[in-house]
Amino acid sequence: MSNRFLTGEELPFCKGCGHTGIAEHTEKALLSLGWSPLDVVLVSDIGCHGIVDRFFTTHTVHGLHGRSIALASGITAGLNDPSKKVVVFLGDGGATIGMQHLIDAAHNNFNMTLVIHNNFLYGMTGGQPSELTPLGFKTPTLPMGASTGGYDICELATAAGANYVVRVMGIGDFSEALSVAFSKSGLSVIEVLEVCPSYGMKANPGMKLRQVAEEAGIEVKVYADRERKAFNPLSLNSGGPLFEPSDCLPVIFSSEIDKPVQIMLAGSAGEGVQAAADFFAQAAVTAGLNVTKKGSYPVTVGVGYSASELIVSPQPIFYTGSPSPDTLIILSGDGLSFARNTASRMTKGEILIDDSLPCPEMAVPVIPIGFRTHAGPRNAAFYALFRYLDHSRIFPAEALKKVIGESKLGEKINLEKLFQLP
Amino acid sequence: MEIVKSSTALIDSSLVITESLVQAGADLFIGYPITPANLLYSYGSRRFPLFLSAPDEITTLQWMTGFAATGKLPVTATSFPGYALMLESINMAYMMELPMVIILVQRLGPATGTATCGAQGDIALLNGMISGGFAIPVMSISDSQDCWEVPAKALQMATTLRTPVILFTSKEEVMTSYSYDISQFTGISPVVRNGYSENKPYKSYQADENLIPAFLPVGNPRHQVRFTASTHDEEGNLQGTSKAGLENSIRIHRKIMQNMASYTYYELDEQKEADTLIVSFGITSRSAHEAVARLRKGGRAISHLVAKTLLPVPPVYYEIASAYKRVIFCEENYTGQYRQIMYGYSSPDNITGVNGFGKMIDPSEIIREVLKDE
Hints:
heterodimer, A: alpha/beta, Rossmann fold, Pyruvate-ferredoxin Oxidoreductase, domain 3, six-stranded mixed β-sheet, 13 helices, B: alpha/beta, 35% helix, globular
């Protein structure tokens, strides 16, 4: 295979377009660095610059408008091979619509080079202004000239952490600048200033690229040249399975229930509701029962209510909803507020409620119990489930005591004292 | 006290889904957190060979596509708001014919809706998500065994057919802990990946008799590879509306349709004397199972189809349904989306639905619909 990076066909750009120079000087730079075409991946997106990929003999990937940086980030991370070179072609439109990706690529220092074709406007769609259009620069849809100057994309890339950032004038032979950018590890960014002959020139008759840059204060210089460590997607995990036989719970106890029992535990965030429900569910498994457990809590997990719905059954459980539980246990004011609708729907069963709370008028018996008085707010949920088991006998309360006792929590709680009947 | 060893562990379905995908050979998880997909993100960070946290969902899909272009099999999990951001990029991966699995954990919409409430409201979106109405495979999880088997099948399908595959689930499925018999969770082999091995010039989109192009990663030293999201010919060159370009685009749709028979999974629980068929998928299948059990216990014959391959709709579902006097679709969305996909906005009188919004469908609602004229 030829070592040329361009097919040799005439490039598809308008006469005088700077994109032609970028493509030709990219080839020259890659040749000077000794790369082979199949060691290079050219990633482009939507814009006039993007139609060039078919003229390259490298691997080519042509993606969505403004997303080429993120796409190329995945490619270079996937290759994870310094003997491969990923080059991204994008325009000023793509660079700004995909600004998050540029910042992110610089932040992560992905190993690749971005070549920003900055001709100050959107050439493919008729010459609309871009975020990089300089102050006073005219376009067909902005005949008065831009009233705000473009921002400095090189400053942004530098601030975000790119290893190498440079802006060059796309006039004459700038292949050496491209060679320098291509030879850097980590993220290198080269912004090439150019002129769109179809829209930029016509809207700004007699303009000179250097003059436009100078008047707008756009500096042609190296912004960053450092050696921060390039992104390296190291494997982080040892590969152990997420569950294994040692997670299985032995059947030690038994239960005499012959149909599903639904329990809702409703209390306050930070008071162990989810942990208590989890231990309860494990205890039910040690009693040979099928169990489902799900939690409900606001997205701000540290405040407000915390509730858990549990179903235990001697038969397999299909439907995991429990709109009307057999027993509703309310531990706090938050729990009462959350569970009030559920309580009002109940036509069977019972409600066990902390005796500090007002007893709502319900169609089912409401039994006040001093959960918090006996166990304090931190352990009220554990105590409540113990009292519930002692009361309901759906499986032995000893099962709950055992699973908690054998856990790390068991070392912190005096279960003998906690699990006492009045 | 007699101690009996058991194979039962209290775990949630996110754990099972993650383990399935890793054992099936998925290489990495890329994610941006969103409720209710956070458990998948969390387990992904612990278990996948490689894990990357992306700064947003568009980046997630772009990174995934980049990794897939280098031969890796990526996975992500999200919910509607994140999925909406991914949409254009999924179209890109589809057009580039790059494999990946996207887990869509449904929550209550519209818009940000209620993050902590389950739903099945996104199936209509998936049915039309590829511009042009092209088919993209959507697989659904309906029970514990599905949590184990379907993700691995989705990854195999993605790899073999060179396509993104959507794994469709919901909050109530992935965030509920179950007493699972984990001895059922065995037997997953890594997916088979066939690459291009010939010496003659490679064309990135030259398809075989199954309409599937052989895969080679970018960066390989043997053949030039071109991937593109724009209309292209079999070499991957931009084509506008040329015959070669349009034919290639249509091939991608036909590739999915032609090969779906090999990836059609469903469960049919039929009773010979039944005149009514319940159709369900995902979390609502649990309610439907319960309803079917209660109906039969009460002496009412009933049949039940659990759709696991949701889209494109397998033709066999129509064959099954045609044998029944009544067909009842159970789905946790307001408008009956899957029913509409199969039978249109004005479905025949014998095709009805039990729908839920903001809550799981109770088995008693299904029973009422079955018995409403009796």
